[in-house]
Amino acid sequence: MGARKRNSSVAAKELNKNLIFAKLNNCPTSPRKMRLVADQLRGKKINKALSILKFSQKQPSTRLEKLLLSAINNWQQKNPDADLENQDLFIKEIKVDGAGMLKRLRPAPQGRAHRIRKRSNHVTMILGNLNQNNI
Question: Who has greater pLDDT, 87 or 62?
């Protein structure tokens, strides 16, 4: 690795130390369905987001609720003495990216076969604090 590339990777790691995030990899739900729920959460405070996820009828909402609780837990581990109720935490960024695809065959008439693509996704959630702009 060259010196310039090493310096930029060290700088990127320093920036990531201040971020509070959680990742969900290889979730067996199509990215399109996950984005429908993720778009409802973007920019919301965590209490509002938890209530949206709790009462949502969509299947990906349970996985996103677990991911949000994980991100909150990550924040509490970085700030053990801070009180969660007094902080104005919100979902700063949420990204849903496509992941690998399982390809299956389904029998079709006259000896043919149709391809079934079982999609999966990666979700990254970053929390921010309204009081501190640097997080």
Answer: 62
